[in-house]
Fold:
Amino acid sequence: FGFIAAILIAIAPAVASTPALAGSKAEIDGNVQAALQNLMATTPAAKELAGIAKGILVFPRIVKAGFIVGGQGGEGALVKNGKTAGYYNTVALSYGFQAGIQAFGYALFFTTDSAMTYLERSSGWEIGVGPGITIVDEGVARSLSTSTARNDIYAFFFDQKGLMAGAGIQG
Structure:
């Protein structure tokens, strides 16, 4: 088990700029726009960051499931100046003590040209490798503004449903 899981973890990119296969472009665009509008309506920090973002990568629905071996995946789009600039998918595999199923969405706000260039030039990108990402929770959101936003990428998670419990290694 351990050897197979290690191989699967090693070959699973977290974000890849490959064409979305399961959903049509129109479906993805509609889901991305709805998720982004909802996020900005409910999170003032997201709305403020949208004004300075070079691009926003939105994954409106990611499904994560597992029992010992788990996986997650979803489709999304990069939004620049209010329009879709590309389609992406996110995939991750994990191994360890875990059980459950969960769905959630997230949006990455790219606030620097270098971070945006890194995304656009990467054929696969793993979160934690490359530009720095700041997870925006309630505490960070209260003090975040366009004048205090100094990091490359800000991540907002939303619409979390279900339960996933455990500890594992993810790649």
Q: What stands out?
A: The helical segments are 2-11, 25-42, 44-50, 113-121, 138-143. The CA atoms of residues 20 and 161 lie 23 Å apart. Residues 1-21, 139-149 have pLDDT under 50 and may be disordered. The chain is about 30% helix and 45% strand.
